[in-house]
Amino acid sequence: MKKERRIKKSEEFQSMIKNKKHIASNLFVIYYKQKEEEKNRVGISVSKKLGNAVVRNKLKRQVRMMVQEIGCLESDVDILILVRKAYLANTYDINKKGLETLVKKVKIRAYSDHEGE
């Protein structure tokens, strides 16, 4: 995932959370917002409660790979993915299926929200 497709700034993370549009599961919480720039972007956040820096960076790399494989970058919304503790107990494939399910729900909701405006 290219760096220009990532959400990095703390202010952007907070504005997406304040927007309050989200979908949650036991593995992830996904906040979404209509994109403000030409390209949509993805942000990934892993809590310090999940492990040290090495573990958190590994989880972020895995989620970035899942985002590329699923095709999250083809939607018309910016997405913020928060990783939950249950992620550690599952395999990569189970986590990927969980993320894929949530991303599909986000695309459906974002489309219906956009139609309602």
Q: Which helices and strands appear, and what pairs or packs with what?
A:
Elements: H1 10-19, E1 22-24, E2 28-34, E3 42-46, H2 53-70, E4 77-83, H3 92-116
Parallel strand pairs: 3-4
Antiparallel strand pairs: 1-2, 2-4
Helix pairs in contact: 2-3
Average pLDDT over all residues: 86
| CATH architecture annotation name | 2-Layer Sandwich
Number of domains: 1
Instruction: Count every beta strand, where a strand is a DSSP E run of 2 or more residues.
Output: 4
- End-to-end span in angstroms? 31 Å
The global form is: globular
What is the overall number of helices?
3
- What is the H/E order? HEEEHEH
Sheet with most strands = 4 strands, mixed
Low-confidence stretches: none
Q: Determine the CATH topology.
A: Ribosomal Protein S5, domain 2
Strand order of the largest sheet: 1-2-4-3
CATH secondary-structure class = Alpha Beta
Helix percent band: 40-55%
Key phrases:
117 residues, alpha+beta, Ribosomal Protein S5, domain 2, four-stranded mixed beta sheet, 3 helices, globular
Explain what this protein looks like in three dimensions.
It is a single chain. The protein has 117 residues and is an alpha+beta fold. It has one domain: 2-Layer Sandwich (Ribosomal Protein S5, domain 2). It is 45% helix and 19% strand. It contains three helices and four strands; from the N terminus they run αβββαβα. It has helices at residues 10-19, 53-70, 92-116; strands spanning 22-24, 28-34, 42-46, 77-83. A four-stranded mixed β-sheet has the order 1-2-4-3, with helices on both faces. Helix 2 links the parallel strand 3 (42-46) and strand 4 (77-83). The longest helix has 25 residues, at 92-116. It is globular.
